[in-house]
Amino acid sequence: MTDQSALKSVYPASAEFVAKAHVDAAGYEARYAASVKDPVAFWGEEAQRIDWIKPFTRVKDTSFAPGNISIKWFEDGLLNVSANCIDRHMLTRANQTAIIWEPDDPKEPAQHITYAQLLENTCRVANVLKAHGVTKGDRVVLYMPMIPEAAYAMLACTRIGAIHSVVFGGFSPDALANRVNDCEAKLVITADWAPRGGKKTGLKDNTDKAMLHCSDKVKVLVTKRTGDQTSWVEGRDFDLNAEMAAARPYCPYVEVGAEDPMFILYTSGSTGKPKGVVHTTGGYLVFASLTHQVTFDYHDGDVFWCTADVGWVTGHSYIVYGPLANGATTVMFEGVPTWPDAGRFWEVCAKHKVNQFYTAPTAIRSLMGLGAEWVEKHDLSSLKLLGSVGEPINPEAWSWYNTHVGKGKCPIVDTFWQTETGGHIITPIPGAIPQKPGSATKPFFGIRPEVLDAATGQVQTGTEAEGVLCLSDSWPGQMRTLWGDHQRFEEAYFSQYKGYYFTGDGCRRDADGYYWITGRVDDVINVSGHRMGTAEVESALVAHDAVAEAAVVGYPHDIKGQGIYAYVTLMKGVEPSDDLRKKLEAWVRHEIGPIAKPDLIQWAPGLPKTRSGKIMRRILRKIAENDFGSLGDTSTLADPAVVDDLIANRMNRG
Ligand code: ATP
Ligand code: MG
């Protein structure tokens, strides 16, 4: 068993790391204090990190007042995102690699795309879009593999002021059609096929199916990825590669207002129908750029790798916009962590000498389950920093990541944020804030978190506090509205606790002022009057050597009000048994206390996850409640078969 006491401690960055870091402890304290005391001065200054075509005169005009939720930053400024991400680097970095593209199949060569090449390709796509009548404010949906063309297309939209909405390539035709219709897109950019993990998905086929449910005015641009055959609808489908080759290699960028929409991105849907989150141009770019530099302590010349897909906000902010605005070298990876083998991530780190590596706890846990020998095979000496995003990282996974990947010398930044926040809002700043495994630590500059009592909405004024996480003031990266539905925006985020942005997440603040995200508020369980975050029980289970992954939900219990139902995935090679079940119950009892002992444990070969790897607890809740007639929106589920197995083997049949 792992020594849990070792995990309770605090991990400062090494003196060597701190000496080189952009921000040290004193710097963090001073800048954070300034950012909340005078946000206008702070952000007015920070916004100078990007180029403005016309400088803004007003920094902040925001209101969280009920009935008048309005968020504007740098409102009268004009800028262009692609000019900031590409053109302005041309004098100093034209021949520097902007994007390292690593294909799905390691036998295929990687590509190194320089800033000069990025400019030309982006311009060519922009000219193609213009030729198809796309203009400022039009919506363009991208449904693409993780290939450089996806970045060109995103940047090309921003170059001409079109609004992109990237739909993850793993989504179904229905999910694609819903999004195309919701944002009334004029055009869809896709690819013939998307290779992933040695298999390929027919993106063009899926697009054809989706188009049956969309306006016949929508055009489709198709890029070749594999070159395998696809069907073709004359007059609707166009060959992107051929048109790029024929297009002019330069396209002037347009002036875009700071508050003009830049992109729409639908949330992952782990709690219900996806929401069309709208981000605007100026504030988003400032925030993505600043958080990328500070949280990852990115320095010129570093190779930065975020393993997300551009279909998620993480891919927007930390593969494309943040890194490129900073003139970075960013890795774009088409594949999966476990193909051709479980060492792929580490092989890519070694091959491209990655300095900062940013991934999700779900990936770490699944690799942990396959054994550390896959890590040890590769030379990871280039790594300086590790990051985590998407879910609370349980201390066990944190420790594995720290020991085997970081070799104990890389700070781990556990970044808490959302599609809605545009960038990190609670996160360790690596040279400044000592880490505690499992805690996202402290607020980023300009972020004003408050812990509110979930029931009364009272602000918890003591340092130590527990409740729901809200933010009392705006920051530049904040979403502005939900596409076409400002009322749902108010209802979803500002109606529960008046005057605050409500994250939907529970949290605890400890005596050192560190924040611990305890999971979504919907996921809190109440056992005999004791409120408990499901994350805590899951962490305890995962800390057991036999357990690879666990998901915990509540279900109605005659005596306790709610009982604890745990779905447990065992480590490879471990056999389920009643004896093991008893051991796990005793283990949780010992780790947290008798109150947290699971009432029912179901062995789960797999857990229902969204395409971004998040556990869909609302489905698990339904199964635990023995009520699985209507599971709600499951269109973003990665593998629907998992659900059938869980239903068949459910433990509560009462
Ligand atoms: P939907 O809103 O449609 O249900 P979603 O919330 O899963 O989908 P995202 O915006 O991708 O969509 O995820 C944000 C959520 O992920 C946060 O609200 C939080 O619950 C969780 N999260 C992200 N990072 C962390 C982290 N470092 N620690 C704990 N939780 C995290
Ligand atoms: Mg959410």
Automatic annotation (TrEMBL):
Q: What is the lineage of its organism?
A: Bacteria, Pseudomonadati, Pseudomonadota, Alphaproteobacteria, Rhodobacterales
Its EC number is 6.2.1.1
According to its UniProt record, which cofactors does this protein need? Mg(2+)
Q: Any idea where the AMP-dependent synthetase/ligase domain is?
A: 91-474
Post-translational modification comment from the UniProt entry:
Acetylated. Deacetylation by the SIR2-homolog deacetylase activates the enzyme.
Family the entry assigns: Belongs to the ATP-dependent AMP-binding enzyme family.
Enzyme class per UniProt: ligase
- Ranges for domain AMP-binding enzyme C-terminal: 536-614
Report the residue ranges that make up the Acetyl-coenzyme A synthetase N-terminal domain in this protein. Answer: 28-85
- What biological function has been recorded for the protein in this entry? Catalyzes the conversion of acetate into acetyl-CoA (AcCoA), an essential intermediate at the junction of anabolic and catabolic pathways. AcsA undergoes a two-step reaction. In the first half reaction, AcsA combines acetate with ATP to form acetyl-adenylate (AcAMP) intermediate. In the second half reaction, it can then transfer the acetyl group from AcAMP to the sulfhydryl group of CoA, forming the product AcCoA.
Keywords for this entry? Answer: Acetylation, ATP-binding, Ligase, Magnesium, Metal-binding, Nucleotide-binding
Q: Which InterPro entries match?
A: Ac_CoA_lig, ACAS_N, AMP-bd_C, AMP-bd_C_sf, AMP-binding_CS, AMP-dep_synth/lig_dom, ANL_N_sf
Q: Which Pfam families match?
A: ACAS_N (PF16177), AMP-binding (PF00501), AMP-binding_C (PF13193)
Instruction: Quote the protein name from its UniProt record.
Output: Acetyl-coenzyme A synthetase
One molecular function GO term is: acetate-CoA ligase activity
Catalytic reactions on record: acetate + ATP + CoA = acetyl-CoA + AMP + diphosphate
Organism per entry: Tabrizicola soli
